[in-house]
Amino acid sequence: LSLPSQAELHAARGRTVPARDPATLLPSTRVLLKRREVAEVEHELQNRREEFQQRMQRLAQRRQQLARRERQHRDAVLRFDSFLKAVAARQERALRRAGEERARAAAERAEAARLQRELAGLLRHRERLARRLRSLRPFGDYLRDVVASMGQFQDVPAMLVHFGVLAGVRAALAREAEAGQERLAQDRARLQRYRQETSTELLGTKDELARLHTQLEAAHQDVLQWESCWTHIQSTATQKTLLLAQIKLAVLNLFQLTTAQLRIPTDRAQEDTKAQLDMV
């Protein structure tokens, strides 16, 4: 029994067919209608399968496009950073060379004036040292008297060296404490900047994760919807197949009953339903 073509099915759908009582139709005609209905269901099932596969392919292509765009964006950012660093390095070298040239010219012009000022300053400093020596002479006498009374040091320079060492140690300790405070302040500032940067990156990551989770949920809903549709289609196809098998079995039983009652020899194949209907 041949199946109707796709064009014939569309033409049959477009024509207005008068309603007829199924009891008035020939069994072969009813079988033909049932087979055409099964063919339509199988065609619709194939269309749904192809549409579902195309939808999954588009989803995979979309994921690949997103990954490719992310890589392209990251590469572009790296190239732009490299370009900015190269430009900054060239500018810095040019500015440094220009500054060195100006510094050398200024140094040569100022060298003579500096030497003159240095000579005048040295003369003034010698005069100040002479006045200071005259003013400190009573203190020298006092220190010598102290060394003589203490008996701990050999002379005034030894006593001054001892107290100078103590003053140096105290100054070094003070400098170390100040440097430690400065390092502590720098570490606190770096920690604060790191916390702010980490918080900003975490917020951006959370937003991106929420967006991707939303997309994943939407894709999951689409998959569930198509799986439900596919299950319904399979169930409908199974029912149609079972109905067709029942029709074939009923025709075979009717054929065997008729030929047995009329004692007609049966030379029709067991699967040739159309021939069995014609014989009945």
TrEMBL record:
DUF4200 domain ranges (all copies): 33-147
Short name of one Pfam family: DUF4200
InterPro entries according to UniProt: CFAP_domain-containing, DUF4200
Keyword Transferase attached: no
Domain of life: Eukaryota
Coiled coil: 35-132
Keywords per UniProt: Coiled coil
GO cellular component: cytoskeleton
Cross-referenced PANTHER family: CILIA- AND FLAGELLA-ASSOCIATED PROTEIN 73, COILED-COIL DOMAIN-CONTAINING PROTEIN 42 LIKE-2-LIKE-RELATED
Name of the protein in its database record: CCD42 protein
